[in-house]
Amino acid sequence: MVDVPLTTNLLALPYSILVVEVFTNEDWNDALAFYDNDGKALDLGGIAFSMEARHAVGDATALISITNNPHDDTTGGQIVISGNEFHINVPLSKMSRVPWGSYVFDAVGTAQGLQRVVFTGTMRVIEGVTR
Known about the structure:
By secondary structure, the protein is mainly β. The protein contains 1 helix and 8 strands, in the order ββββββαββ. The protein has a single domain, classed as Immunoglobulin-like (Sandwich), CATH 2.60.40.
């Protein structure tokens, strides 16, 4: 077996744990920037990302499901990658349909046949007042 060097930074990405609060009457827009231990930006190019949020890990249905696949317009939001930045964009049209409450989520990166959890988190969706 010949080892093939990875051409992406998938395995170099640090694992992160996030705590998020978002309202049902707003867009969910967050961004993370990834750096190595020396402060050098880790390019996220070449990595396919997907992220799902559920009330509980065992729930069959994800209430939020987004990717950075430009051909996947069915998820109701998107992940945008720009250099070392990971942008979460879930529009108001999707957030307004997410019931308020507590959720768990994670983001998975896939490259060259490898899959890895990049971050996990908890999210509290708060019912917005202004319509």
